[in-house]
Amino acid sequence: MKSNRNLMTTRNLFPSSSLLDDFFNGDWPALNWGSGPENTWVPAANVVEKEKSFEVELSVPGYEKKDIQVEVDSHNVLHINGEREDEVKEEKEDYTRREFSYGSFTRSFQLPETVDDEQIAAKCKNGVLKLELPKKDTALLKKKTKAIDIA
Hints:
By secondary structure, the protein is mainly β. The chain has one domain (13-143): Immunoglobulin-like (Sandwich). Helices cover 12% and strands 40% of the residues. It is built from 3 helices and 8 strands. The strands form 2 sheets. A 4-stranded antiparallel beta sheet has the order 1-6-5-4, with no helix packed on it. A hairpin with a 3-residue loop joins strand 2 (45-49) and strand 3 (53-59).
């Protein structure tokens, strides 16, 4: 999947003091649960911090929106789970061919307190899951600079 937008890692896009950098440095870690063959694939994620939100894109080829669940738990952890099962069945006069495939993934992120989890929006199209994680108004206010007059 190629995009016209250049979505690089946060270390290349933002200074180390940004919340997005914390995403990769421990304050907002990606958690991958489980082990074993069913959890060996983890979709690649692009994360971009904007003034009013974070945008997350996950590459989920072969998955449709009905195959994916997105939720935020009581500990402010965003969980993205996908599961699909495909069956190909071909019957001819002298043979029958049936093939099954199964795939699943789990991707989790500890959200910073600045994310408004009530306003998270998700869309899935052409094998790309896009999430918009709006920041709370208080987070936007903290980013504004206010000049202080000196008496």
